């Protein structure tokens, strides 16, 4: 047998890598927060500072305006035996590796903190969820209602004293008069009333069980209130009941189930950070390749369903998108053994190597990639240049960059508004930093720009996969290590905390974990990009028509399994 030639690993293009930076200067942060920080806390991913509950807005404003922390990525609420905590995870859109956490400790009998909503609009839904599930209240919040559970629900499911056996009586709300004088558009002197229009929760255009309480002024959308929670399964609590080693990663496939392999990476990255687990280089290439195939799955589905939303096109575009999606699913089924709930990732690597014969699998992947450019051209001909499609998407659903940042938007939703932010490049993991590819952005800020981003990202995924296939094909056989040596039972040290995120098809998916020294997390928090992106829908839709509202919702590419978790 001839000796396998040594591969040449790709070098990093310095222009491509220009945004990689060192972590934040902790001394500068300490000086900036010296007046407000009570003490330091230890987090694995970022410096953490404990602050007073009534200093939240002042400290957030200081970090945003003086230090450039313009991205409130996540808010984690949790209860200890003697206190509650509300943790604010902050980073920067321009320098993702600059991170800081603010820890707000609250007394057991009176868990009330100052609302962060006046500084970061995205805190609105975060704080409602924290109240709903954990029981922390936020003073000054503009709309302190439950968000996932019915208004009549008793107790908070993630609080320590919650009785799981307690029966719940969920009351139906009284039917309200759809004509309401108090919902009239401000400044409108006419005698016409506004009308309440319910869209969903059971409607194909809502992409799942989503209820849009829409207020119309004539034919114009005056207000939209997304009502989520119909699908909520308390995934966070299920993960807290599972063990690190085997029982948590499979849950991740159920969140964004249209493109779910990247979800597995979010869980793996957080646990590996917590437990100091290294991943072999060969396994990183396998992770990167499989994840990019899964990203294509999500974008093909988003493209086909969006065309169905905006002008009812089923026979061509929808079917074309599913044709290509099925080919990718065939490839991933060969690789993982599953067609939908893949569970290919393992802590320290992946489940197994490429299927045998390797040459046949690689050839199948290359055949798909060779045919892809012609298929992308078809999408442009059928969609992008279609007159009806352009009328429905150009200059509708406008989301300005600063508004998108205020709501914590990420993924194609943010990049379609010109925000150059992608965790694969800006907080490198896997093998991405060694490969040649580009982050796709558009300046249109409308529904059309978001569609173009997804089409072009399919092409970038193809570039990444092609390079991974070259590496896998030439990798020396005796160095093909798919997993590192991970203990059968993992028990990270008690008190260790981390927040890690990856770039899935919808945007930034983050996971916060706190260990208590056992083989299961004491707290497991999921930061979903769909949750943030959907919260911005009113900004995109008010003042437009109902068909534009449907188009704007479709352009967000939400999955309710990811919104509700």
Task: Kindly list the characteristics that best describe this protein.
single chain; 565 residues; alpha+beta; Beta Polymerase, domain 2; Cytochrome-c3 Hydrogenase, chain B; five-stranded mixed beta sheet; four-stranded antiparallel beta sheet; 18 helices; disordered N terminus; multifunctional enzyme; transport; oxidoreductase activity, acting on NAD(P)H; NAD(P)H-quinone oxidoreductase subunit H; NAD
Question: What are the SSEs and their pairings?
Answer:
Elements: H1 26-32, E1 39-42, E2 47-51, H2 56-67, E3 71-79, E4 83-91, E5 99-107, E6 112-114, H3 123-133, E7 137-139, E8 179-180, E9 194-199, E10 211-217, E11 220-227, H4 235-241, H5 249-252, H6 261-275, H7 281-311, H8 317-336, E12 345-346, E13 349-350, H9 358-384, H10 387-393, H11 401-406, H12 411-415, H13 423-426, H14 447-474, E14 497-504, E15 507-515, E16 521-527, H15 529-535, H16 537-541, H17 546-556, H18 560-563
Parallel strand pairs: 2-5, 6-7
Antiparallel strand pairs: 1-2, 3-4, 4-5, 8-9, 9-10, 10-11, 12-13, 14-15, 15-16
Helix pairs in contact: 7-8, 7-14, 7-17, 8-9, 9-14, 14-17
């Amino acid at each position: 047998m001839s000796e396998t030639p040594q591969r040449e690993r790709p070098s990093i293009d310095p222009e491509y890598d220009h945004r990689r930076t060192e972590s934040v200067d902790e001394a500068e942060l300490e000086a900036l927060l010296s007046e407000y920080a009570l003490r330091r806390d230890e987090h694995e991913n970022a410096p953490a500072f404990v602050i007073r509950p009534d200093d939240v807005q002042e400290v957030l404003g200081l970090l945003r305006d003086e230090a450039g922390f313009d991205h409130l990525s996540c808010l984690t609420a949790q209860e200890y035996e003697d206190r509650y905590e509300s943790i604010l995870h902050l980073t920067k859109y321009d320098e993702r590796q600059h991170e800081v956490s603010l820890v707000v400790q609250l007394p057991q009998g009176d868990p009330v903190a100052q609302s962060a909503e006046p500084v970061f609009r995205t805190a609105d839904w975060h704080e409602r969820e924290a109240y709903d599930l954990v029981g922390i209240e936020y003073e000054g919040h503009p709309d302190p209602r439950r968000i996932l559970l019915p208004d009549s629900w008793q107790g908070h499911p993630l609080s320590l004293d919650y009785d799981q056996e307690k029966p719940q009586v969920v009351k139906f709300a009284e039917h309200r008069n759809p004509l309401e004088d108090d919902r009239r558009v401000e400044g409108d002197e006419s005698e016409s009333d506004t009308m309440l229009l319910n869209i969903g929760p059971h409607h194909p255009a809502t992409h799942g069980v989503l209820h849009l309480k829409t207020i119309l002024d004539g034919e114009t959308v005056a207000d939209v209130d997304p009502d989520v929670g119909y699908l909520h399964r308390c995934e966070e609590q299920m993960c807290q009941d599972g063990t690190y080693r085997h029982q948590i990663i499979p849950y991740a496939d159920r969140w964004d189930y249209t493109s779910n392999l990247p979800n597995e990476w979010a869980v793996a990255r957080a646990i590996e950070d917590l437990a100091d687990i290294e991943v072999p280089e060969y396994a990183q290439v396998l992770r990167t390749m499989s994840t990019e195939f899964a990203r294509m799955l999500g974008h093909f589905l988003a493209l086909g369903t969006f065309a169905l939303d905006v002008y009812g096109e089923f026979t061509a575009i929808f079917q074309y998108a599913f044709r290509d999606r099925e080919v990718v699913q065939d490839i991933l089924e060969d690789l993982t053994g599953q067609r939908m709930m893949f569970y290919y990732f393992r802590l320290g690597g992946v489940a197994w190597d490429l299927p045998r014969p390797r040459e046949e699998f690689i050839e199948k992947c290359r055949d798909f990639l060779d045919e892809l450019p012609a298929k992308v051209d078809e999408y442009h001909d059928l969609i992008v240049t279609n007159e009806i499609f352009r009328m429905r998407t150009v200059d509708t659903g406008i989301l300005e960059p600063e508004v998108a940042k205020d709501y914590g938007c990420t993924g194609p939703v943010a990049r379609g508004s010109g925000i150059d932010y992608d965790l694969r490049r800006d907080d490198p993991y896997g093998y991405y930093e060694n490969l040649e590819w580009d982050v796709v952005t558009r300046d249109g800020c409308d529904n059309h720009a978001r569609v173009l981003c997804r089409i072009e990202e399919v092409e970038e995924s193809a570039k990444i996969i092609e390079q991974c296939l070259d590496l896998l094909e030439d990798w020396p056989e005796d160095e093909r290590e798919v997993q590192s040596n991970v203990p059968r039972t993992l028990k990270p040290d008690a008190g260790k905390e981390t927040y890690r995120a990856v770039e899935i098809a919808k945007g930034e998916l983050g996971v916060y974990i706190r260990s208590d020294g056992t083989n299961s997390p004491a707290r497991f928090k999921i930061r979903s990009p769909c949750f943030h992106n959907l919260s911005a829908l009113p900004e995109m839709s008010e003042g437009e028509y109902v068909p534009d509202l449907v188009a704007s919702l479709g352009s967000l590419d939400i999955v309710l399994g990811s919104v509700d978790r």
